[in-house]
Write a structure and sequence with these properties.
Order of helices and strands: EEEEHHEHEEEEEHEHEHEE
Strand order of the largest sheet: 6-5-4-3-2-1-14
CATH architecture: 4-Layer Sandwich
CATH superfamily: Ribonuclease Z/Hydroxyacylglutathione hydrolase-like
CATH class: Alpha Beta
Strand content: 25-35%
Helix content: 10-25%
Number of domains: 1
Number of strands: 14
Distance between the termini: 11 Å
Number of helices: 6
Largest sheet: 7 strands, mixed
Shape: globular
CATH topology: Metallo-beta-lactamase, Chain A
Bound molecules: nickel (II) ion, manganese (II) ion
Length: about 230
């Protein structure tokens, strides 16, 4: 079965591959653009990119309900254990680990990572995922542009997931430069239009991607699916 992606609003994503549900940054309850409620989303694994509330979101509640394993940096994995979660898996940048659905590598991200209660959330990351069917997804998560995105692109990227909101992350211009460095087959913009401060015209950005790169932009409304 093909690998599919569903944008749940903001940076929340659901990747479905071979019947496995990989949920990323499930910020739903306080997310004005959330497409689903935390008690109705499926998850076998939950990936958390950094400690900020708009990424940790409903991780605890969803992990408790579903029994999903949470994959994140080591510091956040310790914090989740302190909250009573048992099934956590900590990694660090550049390190990859094989899970039943495929391999997950933590990538660099330039951002903050303090947890909602002020605890040290380690360093923020992105995710490079190689699913068992060979599909390669790079979710940059919250980050500014950095030149080593080129190295990630060298590994081959079917779908790049990039923030375009500006202010807290890359804006549209730097995200366009990121597409040129990564050279993905498809690119999905996220982390925009949740609030006024990150309002962006995704259709105009997609037009720039089409004109200036070989990548196919995939612009979704919260709740919509796309084939990877
Ligand atoms: Ni953040
Ligand atoms: Mn964020």
């Amino acid at each position: 079965m093909a690998t599919r992606v569903r944008w749940l609003g903001h940076a929340a994503l659901l990747l479905e591959s071979d019947g496995t549900h990989v949920l990323i940054d499930p910020f739903l309850t306080d997310n004005p653009k959330a497409a689903v409620k935390p008690d109705e989303v499926a998850a076998d694994f939950i990936l958390v990119s950094h400690g900020h509330g708009d990424h940790v979101g409903d991780t605890l509640a969803i992990a408790r309900r579903t029994g999903a394993t949470v994959v994140c940096n080591y510091e956040i994995s310790l914090w989740l254990q302190k909250q009573g979660l048992q099934k956590v898996h900590g990694q660090q940048h550049g390190g990859s680990h094989r899970f039943p659905f495929g391999r997950v590598k933590l990538t660099l991200a330039f951002h903050g990572s303090m947890l909602p209660d002020g605890s040290n959330g380690g360093n923020p990351c992105g995710f490079y995922i190689t699913f068992n069917d060979g599909t390669r997804v790079y979710d940059a998560a919250d980050t500014g542009l950095f030149g080593d995105m080129r190295l990630i692109g060298e590994e081959g990227v079917d779908l790049a997931i990039l923030p375009i909101g500006d202010n807290y992350t890359m804006g549209p211009d730097d995200a366009l430069r990121a597409v040129k460095l990564i050279q993905p087959r498809k690119v999905l913009p996220i982390h925009y239009n949740t609030w006024d401060v990150i309002a962006q015209d995704a259709a105009a950005w997609a037009q720039q991607v089409r004109q200036q790169t070989q990548a196919t932009p995939v612009v979704l409304k919260p709740g919509e699916w796309a084939e990877v």
